[in-house]
Design a protein that fits this description.
420 residues, Rossmann fold, Dihydrodipicolinate Reductase, domain 2, Alpha-Beta Plaits, six-stranded parallel beta sheet, 14 helices, binds L-homoserine
Length: 420
C-alpha cells in the first residue's frame, strides 16, 4: 500500500482525495498497489472540506510521518511550500506539486535537492492537459522549435467574452472570478504572470533554460480595447494571451503578451476557459494539446497521474535531463525579438499628419503593412491603427517613443504583437 499526505485540501486537494477513493479500483490495477490518502493539512480546521480523510493544521504531521510515501503539495504560495517540499524530499518522500509559482522560482534548486527522489508537477501547467508528460517523454526525440499556447483560462474567458459579446472588462473579470478559475489575486491572471510561470516550466523541459519571471517579457490584457478587437476582426485576427517560447538562431525567446493571431489558426478557435498548447518538434512537426487548464477534477486528474507514475517507478529526471545540456541555449534579450506589430494612436485629423508618422517610421526602417483610420465622433482627432511588417522590438519601442513626442499624436500609443 502507498500512503499519501496532502498539504492543502482546497478544491484540488479535495478532488484528489475523492478521486483516489472513488476510482480506487482502476488506480490499484494501473499502479499495481493500493493508494490511500492517510491525512491532509489545512490552515483552517473548522471549514468543511467535503472529504473523509483525517485533517490536521500542522504540515509536519505529514512531512515527518514515516508512514507517508508521497507528499502532495497544493498549498499555493512560494517560500512556505518551498521549505516544506525541501524538507519532504530530505526526508526521502516523493513529492507531487501543482504549484507553478513555486516551480517558476525554485525548480532548479528543487531538482538538485530531489536528486533521484521523484518530484512531479504535471498539474502545475495547463491543469488537466498532460503537457509536461508530452514534453518530458513523448517528444523527447525532438529539438523543440517552439511552444505557443493559451496557458491561462481566466484571461481566455475574458477575451472570448470581450470579442464575441463586446463585454466590459470589469464585468467579465468578476464573472471569471465567480467561475472559480481566477487566482486569489486576479492580477496574476490578467497581468500575464500566471501564464509566465507555466511558460518557464515548459521552457525548462524544452530548452534546459533557467530563467525567472522577472527576466522575461510579460504583458497582460488590461489595455485591450474594443477598438483593438474591431481592428483584429476586420483584418482576420483573433486576440489571445499567449505564452511563447521560440528557438531562434541567437537563443530562446520567452514572452507572454496579448497577441493577434490569424483567426484561421487552431489556437484562435480555443474559447472560454480552455487552454491549448502547440509544440513544434524538429522531427514530429506540430503537435497540439487542448483541455481544461484549471478546476478541481481536471487538476486532480494530473496530480493522480503523477502519483501513479511514481508508484510504478516511472518518474525519470524532474526536468527531463539526466546530464546538463552542453549546447545550452540562453534567453534572447527582449530588444532582439523580431515580429510584426499593431499600433493604435490618436492623432490630429488634418493634412500632413500621416506623412509625419510614416516619415518617423521610415527613420527606423519600419514598414507599414495595413492601416485603418477611425474618426472620433464630434472630435478633431482620429484613431490611427496599423500593422507593421516584421521588425525588431528595439526599433518599435524607439519608434513609439519618437512618435509620442510628435505634436500631432495625443496620449499613449498602444502596441500589440502579431504572430503569423
Ligand atoms: N488562474 C489560472 C487560470 C488557474 O485561469 O488558468 C490555473 O492555473
Amino acid at each position: 500500500m502507498v500512503k499519501i499526505g496532502i498539504l492543502g485540501v482546497g478544491t484540488v486537494g479535495a478532488s484528489v482525495a475523492n478521486i483516489l477513493e472513488t476510482n480506487a479500483d482502476i488506480l490499484e490495477a494501473r499502479a499495481g498497489k493500493k493508494i490511500v490518502v492517510k491525512s491532509g493539512v489545512v490552515k483552517n480546521l473548522s471549514k468543511d472540506r467535503g472529504v473523509s480523510i483525517k485533517l490536521s493544521d500542522n504540515p509536519l504531521d505529514i512531512i515527518d510521518d514515516p508512514e507517508i510515501d508521497i507528499v502532495v503539495e497544493l498549498m499555493g504560495g512560494i517560500e512556505e511550500p518551498y521549505a516544506l517540499v525541501k524538507k519532504a524530499l530530505e526526508n526521502g518522500k516523493a513529492v507531487v506539486t501543482a504549484n507553478k509559482a513555486l516551480l517558476a522560482y525554485h525548480r532548479y534548486e528543487l531538482q538538485e535537492i530531489a536528486g533521484e527522489i521523484p518530484l512531479m508537477y504535471e498539474a502545475s501547467t495547463a491543469g488537466g492537459i498532460p503537457i509536461i508528460g508530452a514534453l518530458r517523454n513523448g517528444l523527447t526525440a525532438n529539438h523543440i522549435e517552439s511552444i505557443q499556447g493559451i496557458m491561462n483560462g481566466t484571461t481566455n474567458y475574458m477575451l472570448t467574452k470581450m470579442i464575441n459579446e463586446g463585454a466590459l472588462y470589469d464585468d467579465i473579470l468578476k464573472e471569471a472570478q465567480d467561475l472559480g478559475y481566477a487566482e486569489a489575486d486576479p492580477t496574476f491572471d490578467v497581468g500575464g504572470f500566471d501564464a509566465s510561470h507555466k511558460l518557464l516550466i515548459l521552457a525548462s523541459i524544452a530548452y534546459g533554460i533557467d530563467t525567472k519571471p522577472e527576466d522575461i517579457l510579460i504583458e497582460g490584457i488590461q489595455n485591450i480595447t474594443q477598438t483593438d478587437v474591431a481592428f483584429a476582426k476586420e483584418f482576420g485576427y483573433e486576440i489571445k494571451l499567449l505564452g511563447i517560447a521560440k528557438k531562434v538562431k541567437e537563443g530562446v525567446e520567452l514572452r507572454v503578451h496579448p497577441t493577434m493571431i490569424p483567426a484561421s489558426s487552431m489556437i484562435a478557435k480555443v474559447d472560454g476557459v480552455m487552454n491549448a498548447v502547440s509544440v513544434v518538434g524538429d522531427r514530429v512537426g506540430e503537435t497540439m494539446y487542448y483541455g481544461a487548464g484549471a478546476g478541481g477534477d481536471a487538476t486532480a486528474s494530473a496530480v493522480i497521474a503523477d502519483i501513479v507514475d511514481i508508484v510504478r517507478g516511472n518518474h525519470g529526471p524532474m526536468l527531463g535531463y539526466k546530464k546538463p545540456l552542453e549546447s545550452g541555449l540562453s534567453l534572447l534579450p527582449e530588444e532582439e525579438i523580431v515580429t510584426n506589430y499593431y499600433l493604435r494612436m490618436s492623432v490630429d485629423d488634418k493634412s500632413g499628419v500621416l506623412a509625419k508618422i510614416t516619415n518617423e517610421l521610415e527613420k527606423f526602417n519600419i514598414s507599414i503593412e495595413s492601416m485603418l483610420q477611425k474618426p472620433h465622433r464630434n472630435e478633431d482627432v482620429v484613431k490611427l491603427l496599423f500593422t507593421t511588417h516584421s521588425c525588431q522590438e528595439a526599433k518599435i519601442q524607439e519608434a513609439m517613443l519618437t512618435l509620442k513626442k510628435l505634436e500631432c499624436v495625443h496620449g499613449e500609443i498602444a502596441m500589440m504583437r502579431i504572430e503569423k
